Amino acid sequence: MEDRVALVSGASRGIGRAIADRLAADGWRLSLGLRTPSGLADDERVQTVRYDAGAGGEAEWVSAALARFGRIDAIVANAGIIVPKTVIEGSDEELDAMWQVNVKAPRRLAQAAFPALAASGRGRIIITASLSGKRVKSPASGLYAITKHAAVALAHALRQTGFDQGIRATAICPGFVATDMARGLTARGEADMTRAEDVAALVAMALDLPNTASVAELAVNCQAEELY
Question: Does the pTM of the predicted model rise above 0.85?
């Protein structure tokens, strides 16, 4: 268990950084996919790889991680972007940009890592989705919600595809989290939002559960809603 290796995208700040910090504290070896790798340590337990979810390169990242560590036990597809527009206001180009980062990149990463995850016998896939993948809360969240609904479906599809090979996939669906992204979307005070560290704790729990305790989705919210 001490030799487990996880790939984490979008780990330079926010939820991704909190996940990386938590997994490092739990003894994982990490390969971090970052648009700008500088500023983070690269040592015997942490690898930093230049990776832009909007530009591809998942197979190259997986190859680099295998070359460094020899195995992959988990991937955490955390990189994401939002264009806060309605489905009428948004352009095809804006939807395509979110589709590329929020859906297609996680699928490609899982595809590239799938043989290694299967070889682990208890491979784990985490898709950082959103409560916007469970409901459309406001008009301005509509365009984004399309992609996050698809991200949740991706987690379910990966879980079904790899189940007999010991691969378990979970969609993590937070509401407002105290990160730069959320601060630009709500006037809610930071103290009233979910902490990134608490989302990271959910990720760590999902990664540690045995194959006989598969969790398809984990929703977490900082406020009372009709659905969540």
Answer: yes
